[in-house]
Design a protein that fits this description.
The structure is a homodimer.
Chain A (H helix, E strand, L loop, with lengths): L8 E2 L9 H9 L19 H17 L6 E7 L2 H12 L6 E5 L2 H11 L4 E6 L23 E4 L1 E2 L4 E2 L11 E4 L16 E5 L9 E7 L16 H6 L9 H16 L2 H21 L4 E2 L11 E6 L5 H10 L2 E2 L10 E4 L6 H17 L1
Parallel strand pairs in A: 1-13, 3-4, 3-5, 5-8, 8-9
Antiparallel strand pairs in A: 2-10, 6-7, 9-10, 11-12, 12-14
Helix pairs in contact in A: 1-6, 2-6, 3-4, 7-9
């Protein structure tokens, strides 16, 4: 039995499971990258070995997401929270306002951080119905003078997502896609910028990706800390400072794996099938309950509860025994959650459903 | 022959060589961390597996550097450049000034970034003698009203360092120790704060460490981007957001290795021996030249030139053939540089000297 066969199914919200072939490839060259006698982790970011990794990773991401030429792609250190601060600093003049659609906790956090630097306006708040659905946005909701409209495309904690994105003309749409980037087809040209922390569908934590329309770079003339300055990062091709080299290397392996699997079209189909299996089962029983409205359900994070909440810890313990880990909901919302990102194979979802059925029967 | 025997000697300035036993340990549990069936890279930062890693890493660092109780230790995403912006934002009131001793390019960069947010004063500038020595600082040089005095303790590019640190009473001393942290004994109580990017003596790039006197936290009441807010990071025990979990895991392995080796006392002795071997050889010949004044010489970065600069590329190519890589100087200064951080074994330095002698003879 290879060590890897002991692998279990990991449903963590993030840092999350990475594709098994990616992990195996990374393990195989961990100590000796391409016969260099060194790990890719140990080489200078200015050396040929790493520069090739960086270039290839950026090119693969551009290809996978069909990013138009008038958009920059860059890597930054740290995750989405960096952009919560960086977006107002880079895109808003002093005193200028941005619009926020609040569909969950991350959008709220992003708005609160922006508010420390600029005025903000809420154009939607799902609090009344406990964020169980997402709105249909359109130009009529955009406030006059709003420099951008901010959304969280997939709500990791609550298990909802925008089934489709608006084509706004009154202000650029900015989306936090941390928990669903690379999982579904998107038309980049509908967005002013998208960003994502790496730790769900891209690679290890401590890295984020930003895709931004070039004309938005340098829009504000404010004093921005260097590592949050999008224009400076773009100008220096993600190498203003020493980037998180190993995380970028891992991201390249993930992009290669995804391309080989058939790209976004192929993974989107697989993701929809996986999610459908789980939701279809949830819809057949009242033992488990999924609160999110069907049309707003996330394909990445399936959030549910037990009708009898007292059974939760028993459910989680039993799952762990079966090698199904990370099913606890986010500490801010409780309940249960199965994060089924790109790396989760169909078999993992099937194993989870089998366990859920068994648990229901026994209870 | 194990794959690892093909390892070469890597003199990169950073990201740099990591200790061979650390790399082997990391490789051995890369796919399956402690029989969890997962990589430590793939688990939630809020789960027990990672929280233990984080706690242990912070505790080891406190132990290795004998950090007093009145200092916080924290991890932040990104390297030293983050602190170039974060220091003025966290420690200076609007309009308040800080003092800078310019002993090289990194101190200059830190000062220039601080200057974007606050007034700064230079209390020393080694430009006239091309930064070939570092000053002896004392209270008499500190400007009235300076909120802190900033130094770069070791100058990676130029190969100089402070042989000893001043005991200032007029303002706290803040030191960028990126390229020498954990390489020599220091008395933390002489400093208001020290920080270091991880990619030389700690672990992979994309992580930094900050050790700061608790009374300095929250000193400024400014609006600081969340990921740069030291007080917020401390309050959240380095987990305000998802930290770079794998890099923190690697840092723990490095700290364990260092402790096992005998801690800072032991490594300092080894480091001094390694550097002495190299400098002693450089002092016997005019074929190679080391510009830095002997009392200011770095123990981590040995910077030298060839008397005949035309031989540089031949020197580098010959070195690579011998498995000695990364000897080119920093792109901003040129010349040659052997970075001999904690991870570089004595044998690597001996192999380098052998090659240098041979090259000299043949030339």
């Amino acid at each position: 039995m290879s060590e890897f066969e002991r692998r279990i199914y990991n449903f963590y919200g993030g840092p999350a499971m990475l594709p098994t072939p990616v992990m195996e490839k990374a393990a195989s060259e961990f100590l000796n990258y391409r016969r260099s006698g060194m790990s890719i982790m140990e080489v200078s970011h200015r050396g040929k070995l790493f520069e090739k990794v960086l270039d290839e990773s950026l090119a693969l991401l551009r290809e996978l997401l069909s990013v138009p030429e008038n958009y920059e792609i860059m890597f930054l250190s740290a995750g989405a929270s960096l952009h919560f601060s960086a977006l107002p600093l880079n895109l808003l003049h002093e005193g200028e306002s941005a619009d926020f659609a609040i569909t969950g906790i991350w959008a709220k956090k992003a708005m609160e951080e922006a508010l420390r630097f600029n005025p903000v306006k809420k154009i939607y708040d799902g609090e009344d119905h406990k964020y169980t659905e997402v709105p249909e946005l359109d130009d009529s909701m955009v406030n006059p003078g709003a420099a951008y409209v901010y959304i969280t495309s997939n709500n990791t904690l609550l298990g909802s997502r925008y089934p489709k994105f608006p084509k706004l003309t009154k202000a650029p749409l900015i989306a936090d896609m941390t928990s669903e980037i690379l999982s579904r087809k998107i038309d980049i040209s509908q967005f002013g910028a998208i960003f994502a922390g790496a730790q769900k569908n891209i690679g290890p934590s401590g890295l984020s990706v930003l895709i931004i329309r070039k004309d938005l770079l340098g829009r504000s003339k404010r004093t921005i800390p260097v590592l949050m300055d999008y224009a400076l990062t773009a100008k220096n091709k993600s190498m203003y400072n020493t980037p998180p080299t190993y995380s970028i290397y891992m991201s390249k392996l993930v992009f290669e794996w995804l391309k080989e699997k058939g790209g976004i079209d192929a993974i989107e189909k697989i993701n929809e099938e996986k999610a459908k299996l789980l939701y279809d089962y949830l819809d057949t029983t009242s033992f488990y309950q999924a609160a999110v409205k069907p049309s707003s359900r996330s394909v990445m994070n399936v959030v549910f509860t037990l009708q009898d909440k007292n059974l939760e810890s028993k459910f989680l313990a039993g799952a762990e025994e079966k090698g199904l880990v990370g099913l606890e909901g986010h500490r801010l919302v409780g309940g249960l959650r199965a994060s089924i990102y790109n790396a989760m194979p169909r078999e993992g979802v099937v194993a989870l459903i089998d366990y859920m059925k068994e648990f229901e029967k026994k209870a």
